[in-house]
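User: Watch each token:
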Amino acid sequence: MTNLRFVLGALFAAVALTGCATTASTTAVMHGDASRPAQSSGWVRSELYFAVGNEDGTGVIDEARWRAFLDAEVTPRFPDGLTVLDGYGQWRFQQGGRLVRQRAKVLVVLHADSVRPHEDIEAIRLAWKRMTGHESVLWARSAVEVSF
């Protein structure tokens, strides 16, 4: 009986310690549930950059106007969720080389890589340009794997 306890104890310890061992090739495991799978491919992370004010005080879009735009144009198109970050950046005009420093709102949306979200993003960009008179809204996108 003592030998059996010793063998079972050693076996239990070996199994327990195996879970503690790590190597450089270990990858993270994402956990999900039935309604939100552990991992999904075919998603895109879209970032839209909206200028909301130049460093010199011109072109200012106040928080109330931004929120109204978000509520009217963005949320109805992406009701399941989005993220808005405050940013600051700079860029140089190609003609004349003038440097522009701006405050920005960065909108991050994770969505399926399909036609509808792309059309919605283009509609948001167009609505912003109409509202503000700005020439552009930068759109950066990349493929991502998501886990909720």
